[in-house]
Amino acid sequence: MKRVELLTKIEESGVIAVVRGASKEQGKRSCEALIQGGIKGIEVTFTLPNAAEVIRELVSENLDSSVVIGAGTVLDVTTARLAIMAGAEFIVSPTFDQATAEVCNLYQIPVLLQSFKSTIR
């Protein structure tokens, strides 16, 4: 049931802001500004240095339960587990990895695959 509740929370957020940055501090400040500005969906990418720490801090400091914080650019099961243990409520991956999907299923965390479609004709 947890997965369904999280998917509903993601849907209700309306917009998911994808946060990247050159440093942990820059990424965290960006996330905080987005939340203060009313954005309810945050995806912290694992291209951000110390992304798991940023997720952990955001989850522990965020008192607004309508904000959903997830992890992006998750390429393998180890990264997925780090994100989940840090408190990520969803995982986004550019590719399908069965072990990653299985660990997300184990913890009832939604795993979403990025889709890249060309609009050039």
From TrEMBL:
<comment type="similarity">
    <text>Belongs to the KHG/KDPG aldolase family.</text>
</comment>
<dbReference type="Pfam" id="PF01081">
    <property type="entry name" value="Aldolase"/>
</dbReference>
<dbReference type="GO" id="GO:0016829">
    <property type="term" value="F:lyase activity"/>
</dbReference>
<comment type="subunit">
    <text>Homotrimer.</text>
</comment>
<protein>
    <recommendedName>
        <fullName>2-dehydro-3-deoxyphosphogluconate aldolase/4-hydroxy-2-oxoglutarate aldolase</fullName>
    </recommendedName>
</protein>
<dbReference type="InterPro" id="IPR000887">
    <property type="entry name" value="Aldlse_KDPG_KHG"/>
</dbReference>
<keyword id="KW-0119">Carbohydrate metabolism</keyword>
<keyword id="KW-0456">Lyase</keyword>
<dbReference type="InterPro" id="IPR013785">
    <property type="entry name" value="Aldolase_TIM"/>
</dbReference>
<comment type="pathway">
    <text>Carbohydrate acid metabolism.</text>
</comment>
